[in-house]
Amino acid sequence: MENAKYFMRIAIEEAKNSSESLPCGAVIVDELGKVIAKAGNSARKIHDASAHAEINALRQASSKIKNKELRGSHGTPVRRGRTK
Questions:
Q1: How far is CA 53 from CA 1, 14, 17, 32, 84, in A?
Q2: Per-residue confidence of the chain (84 residues) as pLDDT tens digits?
Q3: Which residue of 13, 17, 31, 58 is most buried, as measured by CB atoms within 10 A?
């Protein structure tokens, strides 16, 4: 449970750093508990409708591990508005 809170705090921080109208953050963790990707929304900033936090984190993770299959990983998306 402590790990879940830690990862949620990372996702919340990513949401806070987002300049989007609906700031969201996401974190992807491998099976060993290591953060392999974290991201916020950037759809408006980069003019890309698919650039939501979850998609950005998935792209980062896939690029980092050089594989599109993220077996054993876990994601934690969060919307900043729901964290207050």
A1: 23, 9, 11, 22, 19
A2: 578 889 999 999 999 888 777 888 999 988 888 899 999 999 888 899 999 999 999 999 989 988 777 776 666 555 544 443
A3: 58
